[in-house]
Fold each of these.
Amino acid sequence: MSAEIVPFDWARMLLGDTPPLFLLEIVFRTAVMFLWLLLLLRVTGKRGLAQLSPLEVAIVIGLGSAAGDPMFYPEVPLLHAMLVMAVVVGLQRLTAHLVIVSERVETFVEGTPVELIRDGVLTPLGLKRANLSREDVFERLRAQGVRQLGAVQRAYFEQDGSLTVFTHPHDPPPGLPVVPPWDLEPPRELGVAEAQAFAGPLACLRCGQVRHARAGQGRAGSAPQDSSGACGCGETRWTPALTDPLARRHADHPSAPDNPPSSGPTDGGADSPAATGPR
């Protein structure tokens, strides 16, 4: 311990060597830093907030910083830190009240939900706004038991960073498989020529749009495509659209240890070998 420091010097512990007017400056500095922290948290996006709102994260950081320094820095007066903590709590109460009474303030502080999937198709603008990749969305869908995009009617990235998914209650249409994870087992990729000659539903490997065609001929409701066989998003790679990728995997690999006993494919319709064409 330094020789200049007198233990239990109450004047130093509570006020330090600064004039009393410096307390007013602390209030101003705390308010500025709190608002700046709140703005930065909004800019970083909801992905890293771990289901905490930006306001809650700002409170945790502000209180933690204010409480830590006076615990072991003798030059930081207790009264200054206590004032900072009181101002932070006061700003939190004020902001929470403004969030309730003003929709504009709520939108700034909390953000708005973002639509990521509509009718089995990824929304590129939504992914960009949410700062999420396609693989990030697939990981969150698998955590909720979704096997393919066609089963998803709507998916929203909520204000707290969670994903809300609405699926078809019965008989979902085929779509882009999200299981198994593509890093472990990528879906079967079809080139332009093979996709044009394919008989059955195809899913775009970028957005999940499903094209119903037979031997390259689209029909009503099919995905927009040009003469090169590209999807409306510009992707030219396709994969067979499935209603249950795991059932199809079991049918294709009957000797797999996790395959239940079955005399044939467990998933009919679009996923049967006759519907999806030769492998």
Amino acid sequence: MQVSPSFKRLWWMITAATAMIAMVVYLEVVPVVKSHHLSLGAIEQRLSQGFLPSGTVREQAVSGGMSRGGSFGRSSAPAPSAPRSLPSYGGGYGGGYGGGYGGSYGYRSAPGPVIVPYPTYAPAPVYVGTGGGGGGGFLIVIVVAGFILLPIAFSYLQGSSRRFDGPATAGSQSELLNDIVTVTRLQIVLLAGARDLQRDLDRIVVNADLTTPAGLAAQLRETVLALLRHPDYWTHVRAESQTVSGRERASELFERLSIQERSKFTVETLVNVGGEVQRRTMPSGPSEDVASHIVVTLLLGTADDRPLFNTVNSVADLKAVLQRLGSISPAYLLVYELLWTPQDPTDSLSGDELIANYPDLITL
């Protein structure tokens, strides 16, 4: 195959340019690197120091604490406000559907095949009209009755469903049993001078009993009390409470909020999930930044059919909301997650980091 003269010229131009670039790199860059004796890691460090401005804010706070217990699933134990006993119809279901009704209405499941005795008597005579439509009349009666009764039955069932799934009276048994729940996020920012709050939260999380509703409510109550002891250190707040129809949707919303907040930590240095406590060390030494703030986040899932509060714009509003959360009964508290940063006493959260990671705060 014959190569055109224009292609040859292009090839020689590319070759010459490549050779010139290689010569410049060999003569200029290599001697500089050798003279400074820089390793690859040192070069990366120099580059990062040279191209990043000195006032760059860390993308994340370093240490965080986390505690979580409960679930949005229905508890197998009866709610405390439920009636002591329910009327029995022939012994109840006797173990659920898995083993048959087991005594309901007096019936028992047969261990083997059921033998039906063949009738020894002569069957009663059946008279059929001569017109050939004796069975058709009965069928027409059934169809007409179905058209009349089915709409009434559907209307009753839909009304019952709306009454059961709609917002119920506060504190009633229906409010505990329906699928309407409320998801709440309360975020409080304190000045770093409240260092004893960090120690209180560590103690509360380590000693918390997250395996029972009463233990979960006790942890929430102790957290609220610890925060109420430091009103002079409160600087910012973020509060939102919304009602969700359906526990699966509520669980998805709760997990989304949890991931959003936990992703702001580089490492969770203290974790208690379901009663299992884990500790991790910080990836680096003590922070050289001056400590400025502490952020405490409370995430709750409750059986309330209405939001726990409207808006929080002042210290008085925040006190009222904390008192409301601290009075939630174990029957209503479904899920509770506590998050705070920094958790490690040697770590810090500066004012610039607070603005970068928590832009939706309201100043108190």
Amino acid sequence: MQTTRLSERAGRILAALAREYIETGLPVGSATLSRSVGGLSSASVRNVLAQLEEQGYVRQPHTSAGRIPTDLGYRFYVDMLMTMRRMGRPNASVEAQLRQHTGTNALMADMLAQVSHVLSRNSRQVAFALGPENQAAAFHRIDFVPLANTAVLVVMVAKGGQVTHKVVDIKEQLDADVLRQAANYLNSEFAGLCLSEVRAAVVERLCQEQSLYDQLLSRALRLAQSTFEGLPDENSLFIEGTSLLLDQAAEGSAGPPIAMLQGLLKLVEEKHRLVRLLTEYLNTEGLTVIIGAEHQSPDLKDFALVTSTYFDGRRMGRVGVIGPTRMPYWRSISIVDSVARAVSRVLRDSGWDDTDAAPRC
């Protein structure tokens, strides 16, 4: 969605209209705008509004009503805010809360869950924290724990504290000592590679050595292959705050009608769809705002999304908020940007960006 170049007067009027509508939720009339921009009569404002409506920036919900922004009008307003934006410092309070979830034994999942909570609470919107791509994570270690009969619990840890648990049936009963030796072999061979490289290396070795004379090596590789089969490729996603939009809709306040929320709630329930959407078209680094019709999914056509990237030293993840197109963009942009940079600082300072163990992807 691209905006055309507007005159200075039309731009001021459109920005004032967007601010007023976001604040009140009511169509904005020419008299209100005349007072807001100053130096223009109501008649002059009406002429400009007619031009803006013809260009697709505003619309009139009822014949006798004032105007409200269209998605194109919001886009102009957001682009104006982005050009005016100054990069502030990460919020100290947010950093302090995130640091409570880091440390020697901290998991990235714990911190990302906290990020979505903090972001939702501060923005009053649906908030999400999207983890870096799983298959790009650096393999740290694997452990095998014998369960009943021939079942084995696999615990795989990636750099940055990402942990995957999986139960596999190895079709034979092995004691803890044998499993520990197999894990030690895999850890010594593959530590530091990214998970996708470990998966490929295991398959290659099994293909090359169909008749392995070393029973331990054979078992270790077969255990690793079972572990990586079905390992999720998608990023982990943490979401919080859907109840806030439901409350707003029930109160008839800033949120969209409950009927409009159905698509968003369905996306939230089917996290894999939302993960794919976010990773497919939010592939640029830094702050991004997507509004209404700009979304690839029709389920989000009534919503705006503000997102920014964080960096763990090797890979990018994303944090952001989803709310009605009539969201307080300036506040949302500021909060998301601040939280994203706070996450990057916490990850960097916690040592999760250990470059000596960076995957060779």
